[in-house]
From TrEMBL:
Gene3D superfamilies recorded: Aspartate Aminotransferase, domain 1, Type I PLP-dependent aspartate aminotransferase-like (Major domain)
Pfam families the UniProt entry points to: KYNU_C (PF22580)
Taxonomy, superkingdom: Archaea
Source organism of this protein record: Halorubellus litoreus
Gene: kynU
Name recorded for this polypeptide: Kynureninase
Pathway the protein takes part in: Cofactor biosynthesis; NAD(+) biosynthesis; quinolinate from L-kynurenine: step 2/3; Amino-acid degradation; L-kynurenine degradation; L-alanine and anthranilate from L-kynurenine: step 1/1
Biased composition (Basic and acidic residues): 11-23
């Protein structure tokens, strides 16, 4: 790209930032680096999240045990109340959502519960895919083993044809060709950022008598969902990525209201009906809604930041967030094509916005060393095997000029081969 084209791109970025209705939301965040493009791994803290956490700490200090009933909001129904606050983001009814535990624990609970809920003459398979985040497979395999089923036989995987994406036709074919009891897929693939067709997969699963479940970790807070009307049976997600609720923040789960009679495979006191909880009966009396899938006492201090963080998302509006996210990733892809393709960078993310989540996967043979060099230029991304730098322009605190600048920095690093001054990957957190 020549100088005039570069100037034109920068001017366009500034113009779009000037017209951006969400630009003011950056002021509500403490962004730790000049170019923080890793919100798909951990979102930064907002003043709203910090305030709700500090409020919970103050109530603990001032009220002690009385905080369970006298705090504002009271802690006893924290999981249900924040779940109701989350419900609009995933297109669910308030009774269908609760915050609890971690994403992996929630996968264990719901996959196990829905395996037990089936009435099959022959043990059915669980259909996943070979580009999943590993924890999903660990949990599914463990739940199968606990029921005497060999994961090598019963954990089925849809193969990727290109190493980047999962074709919806291949998912449908796998459902039709196998004895599938549960289809469990991510809404967005963690490496490439592909957005899967949740509605089509759910319809295909139901047509063949299978449950449809989804891991929304890489879409909740940046992509609107319509879980109830689509008929998704269950779903899980974390809240520390695009929801910006903090490291290790409490996770969430959804169970369609038609399944509120499904017995929890992992029962615990906090899933008891709140009305009978303190009867201290030894027989489990499950809550009448998704709350029955809670296990242990709600961890107030890891749930409180989510309470405030959701205020930011609510004020911005999930549809406006999605619109800006698509525009940011579209702008980034165009700049990569113009400036970085000649340096060996490929876009591994679908170009169709209806098939793209909130981040862009940049593929390069020196992706690891490139990501290390970027950090020293104030650009925080992350590396994923074997050759991907994930760049997430999160709409609440990233602008179009930020995207322009990041691509320019990458171009300089590649042109000067600065990445060669960094050691090759030797393990560790990336």
């Amino acid at each position: 790209m020549d100088d005039s084209d570069a100037t034109s791109a920068l001017e366009r970025a500034k113009e779009r930032d000037a017209d951006d209705e969400l630009a003011e939301f950056r002021e509500r965040f403490d962004v730790p680096d000049e170019y923080y493009m890793d919100g798909n791994s951990l979102g930064p803290i907002s003043t709203d999240a910090a305030d709700s956490l500090e409020n919970a700490v103050s109530e603990w200090r001032e009220l002690g045990i009385r905080g369970w009933t006298e705090s504002d909001p009271e802690w006893f129904h924290y999981g249900e109340r924040i779940g109701a606050k989350l419900a609009p983001l995933v297109g669910a009814r308030e009774s269908e959502v609760v915050v609890a535990d971690s994403t992996t624990v929630n996968i264990h609970k719901l996959v196990g519960s829905f395996l037990d809920a089936r009435d099959d003459d022959q043990p059915p398979g669980v259909l996943a895919n070979d580009l999943d985040f590993p924890t999903d497979h660990y949990a599914m395999a463990a739940q199968l083993r606990q029921r005497g089923l060999d994961p090598d036989e019963h954990l089925l995987r849809v193969e990727s044809a290109d190493g980047r994406t999962i074709d919806a036709d291949a998912v449908v074919d796998a459902i039709e060709e196998n004895d599938v009891g549960i289809v469990f897929m991510p809404s967005v693939l963690y490496r490439s950022g592909q957005l899967l067709d949740v509605e089509r997969i759910t319809e295909a699963a139901h047509e063949h008598g299978a449950y449809a479940g989804f891991d929304l970790a890489h879409s909740v807070g940046v992509v609107p969902h319509d879980l109830h009307d689509v008929g998704v049976d269950f779903a899980v997600w974390c809240s520390y990525k695009y929801l910006n609720a903090g490291p290790g923040a409490i996770a969430g789960l959804y169970v369609h209201e038609r399944h509120h009679d499904v017995e929890p495979a992992l029962a615990g006191w906090w899933g008891n009906d709140k009305e009978t909880m303190f009867d201290m009966a030894l027989d489990f009396d499950p809550a009448p809604d998704a709350g029955r899938h809670q296990v242990g006492t709600v961890p107030v201090l890891s749930a409180a930041p989510l309470d405030g963080a959701l205020d930011v998302v609510r004020d911005a509006g999930i549809d406006a967030i999605r619109e800006k996210s698509v525009a940011l990733t579209e702008f980034m892809i165009a700049l990569v094509d113009d400036r970085l393709a000649e340096h060996g960078v490929d876009v591994g993310t679908p170009r169709d916005p209806e098939r793209r989540g909130g981040h862009v996967a940049l593929e390069h043979e020196e992706a690891y060393r490139l990501s290390e060099a970027l950090r020293d230029h104030g650009v925080v991304t992350d590396f994923r095997q074997p050759n991907v730098v994930r760049v997430a322009p999160a709409p609440l605190y990233v602008g179009f000029e930020d995207v322009h600048d990041v691509v320019h920095i990458i171009e300089d690093i590649l042109e000067t081969r600065e990445y060669e001054t960094y050691d090759r990957q030797s393990g560790g957190v990336t």
